[in-house]
Write a structure and sequence with these properties.
252 residues; mainly alpha; 10 helices; 80% helix; 0% strand; globular; TSUP/Inactive_protease-like
């Protein structure tokens, strides 16, 4: 027991944060989706899970965004086109999730996460076409922000993958979406605070933060050794199986 926190209760969440950040650091997406799926499987209520995940992501995306900006990986015109609607969608998603009963929300969230897992499986077998400017951007940012808050994750898989499908440059797309994600997650976290109060931040939040920080440099190294296609396939398999299983339990 340290500072009133039971370490045995903290360890599972540290493990979740570590595993999710390892994948996210190597793949550039899926920290929120993986964390939220595993938190739901550990019995954390949907709104609490999403609030905790986004609090942690506020720190991790701040570091990621600064790094991408310094390396000139950010398309600032595209950034504004996705960040503003993303913030609006994120606030709406957090408000909706905070004001509906957890039992009602859980099946829908798990169904959404299952869809994300299946989409990642598809993306692992299909790569984007030749580079061109994306046409559908603002609606994508709005939907990505809303689903990210409502599902506890999904901004990266939804926005990045769709922009790549439209032919956007992989390097600047990943950098731009990651930089915009800081403002989206900060807004979502602030909305959860106004709706749920400080009770939204539990031992799960602390565990995710510790695990995520430890894994951050290791995930970057992993990215150099494992093919993104293989990692995306692995993420899709894990998310799909975990979400389908928990959806079955929720609907029983």
């Amino acid at each position: 027991m340290i500072f009133g926190i039971d370490l045995t209760a903290l360890l599972p969440f540290i493990a979740v944060g570590f595993a999710a950040q390892m994948v996210d650091g190597a793949l550039g997406m899926a920290f929120g989706v993986i964390s939220n799926t595993l938190l739901l499987s550990l019995g954390v209520p949907p709104a609490m899970a999403s609030a905790g995940v986004h609090t942690v992501e506020t720190f991790t995306t701040a570091v990621s965004g600064i790094s991408h900006a310094l390396h000139k990986n950010v398309n600032w015109k595209l950034f504004l086109r996705i960040a503003v609607p993303g913030v609006i969608g994120g606030a709406l998603g957090a408000y909706v999730l905070s004001n509906i009963h957890a039992a009602t929300a859980k099946p829908f969230i798990l169904a959404y996460l299952t869809a994300i897992g299946l989409y990642l499986l598809w993306r692992s077998r299909h790569y984007p076409p030749h580079e061109r400017s994306p046409k559908i951007v603002e609606p994508l940012g709005l939907a990505g922000g809303f689903l990210d808050a409502a599902g506890g994750g999904g901004w990266g898989p939804v926005v990045t993958s769709n922009l790549l499908v439209q032919g956007s440059s992989p390097r600047t797309t990943i950098g731009t979406v990651n930089t915009a994600e800081f403002f989206v997650t900060a807004t979502i976290s602030a909305t959860f605070i106004t709706q749920l109060g400080l009770k939204a931040f539990t031992v799960a939040t602390i565990g995710l933060l510790i695990g995520g920080v430890i894994a951050a440099p290791l995930g970057a190294r992993l990215a150099k050794r494992v093919e993104p296609k293989t990692l995306m396939l692995m993420v899709g398999v894990v998310l799909t199986l975990t979400s389908v299983y928990n959806l079955y339990l929720a609907l029983r």
